[in-house]
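Known limitations

Structure tokens in this collection are predictions and should be treated as such. Users comparing against experimental data should check residue numbering before alignment. To illustrate the layout, the record for N-acetylmuramoyl-L-alanine amidase is reproduced below. The input appears on top and the generated tokens appear beneath it.
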Amino acid sequence: MPDLTRRMLVGGLTGLVPSAALARVTAHAPVHAHAPAAAARHVAHPAHAPLHAPAIVGRAAPPKPLVMLDPGHGGKDPGAIGISGTYEKHVAEAAASELQRQLEASGRYRVAMTRADDRFIPLEGRVDIAHSHKASLFISMHADALTNRAVRGASVYTLSSKASDRQTAMLAQTENSADRYGGPQVHADSPEVQEILASLVTEETRHGAAHMASSIVTSFRPRIGLLQHPSRHASFVVLKSADIPSVLVEMGFMSNHMDEAALRQAAHRMVVAGAMVQAIDRYFATDSMVTHATG
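Generated tokens:
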């Protein structure tokens, strides 16, 4: 790839990286000395010359971490269509709204949605929204479909220039094609470009995404059916943030009648959201992730 193209890619992505830092202001009260005139000849008695220690002003509590929820698809992009005609875009929005409700009810987080209604947003536009909110964590929610209707179960995905397996490669290709509904694709998706973009993701971000994926799998396992080897990776455009740990959650498959039926039920979506709240709690409780809560 020509150096100019590489510099344009790097410049375009790194321009999204937020650089603001919290300012710390410490106020000190002045020191007063009320010594009598004789102080020139004698050492003043403490009662006559009190020294006031600097006033200690407590630091403001850091802001609650902002979790950006991204309901997949929307508007003219229905996403996967289930066996009984259920649209993935509706399931994703309903599940994300329930997760938002539970997270806000906990009082521990701020929450924002890339979309809270039925509208189309380009994939890279979703990443831009997360950056504009200075999100601490990005979670994209989906319920895709496969040609094999027997496959069912939840799974979670992180970014990689190469797919972990053939099924994941097919899912990434399907998800990355969503921008076709918005006209000409604005993201470059050649293998070389994918590798360059993936290399720009910081090691800290990769570690955070892997930790979040592991937390979701741990929380899902006792209550929600999982794919075999549920933690996977591929080159998902929506996960290409350089500095926000990002995961894509497939809550199940609309191509499987049991998964589709479950995801249509509010009670099941509450269970999914509850498991994800537990995973998010575990993520932010980890010492190595504390820095994301103050970004």
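For this record: The chain has a mean pLDDT of 80. The two ends are 34 Å apart (CA to CA). Please report discrepancies through the issue tracker.
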